[in-house]
User: Fold this.
Amino acid sequence: MDLKGIYTALVTPFKNGMLDEKAFKNHIDFQLKGGINGFVPCGSTGEAPTLSYEEHEKVIELTVKYVKGKVPVIAGTGSNSTQEAIELTESAKKLGANFCLLTTPYYNKPTQEGLYRHFKAIAEAVNIPLILYNIPGRTGINMTPETIFKLSKIKNIVGIKEAAGSLTQVSDIYRLTKGKFTILSGDDNLFLPMMSVGAVGIISVLSNIMPKEMQSLYKAFLVEKNIKKAMDIHTRLMPLFQGIFIETNPIPIKEAMAYMGMVKKEFRLPLCPLSDTNSAFLKGLLGEYGLLKKK
Assistant:
């Protein structure tokens, strides 16, 4: 199963403190109509750190059952505890996920050898295709291209979501793995330049509200080979790429979806709504793109 194209990092809609299953299913329908290539439930965009173990399983199960095999489901199962990551990954496999996404351990800041042993242990414990997730801005540790290359030799570690914000790092991963290891962008604003140095897709935040546009960007560059068209789409979307990260993800994207009538504006503490200034800015930006819900 090739990992190419646009994979949406799904938000987790809440209603009165509980998972809003109706809004979640409606959102999946919207994504499928937008031509999305796959779904990533229980990532940072899905507020996974504040989901209970039971809710984590429920979100993955609901995604798998509702998608019905139309596109792959990449379940977020990372943890700063290797044993917990193994348990979450085993659970996701039993629930029918096609892949699992594993973030580098956060807070405990392991060495590169520790990172290697962490992911190797998970790969040996659970026979499911695994995607590494490197996001030092959130975890406090960067996984080097050399460590990624070493992990790429493990059979069921099939790719990486790279969000270090470095094109040099992406280039080095591509060079070391000779282009045979799947690289997915973890940054919407860097998707186009990352494709130019080896990325073949993205796990996207913006695709929650603009799946068709993100699909068009991917196809323009990698399928149609129309660089001018890709540049035009990229630059047109750049204000949104920046706007949905005006505060900590997923606060802005979830608030944008609320303004579009897709979900309730409800977060789990310690996340909270945007400041009044940033909320007004985001609403104005959505209006410029014709994305506000019509009254």
Residues 5-226 form a domain with the TIM Barrel fold (CATH 3.20.20.70).
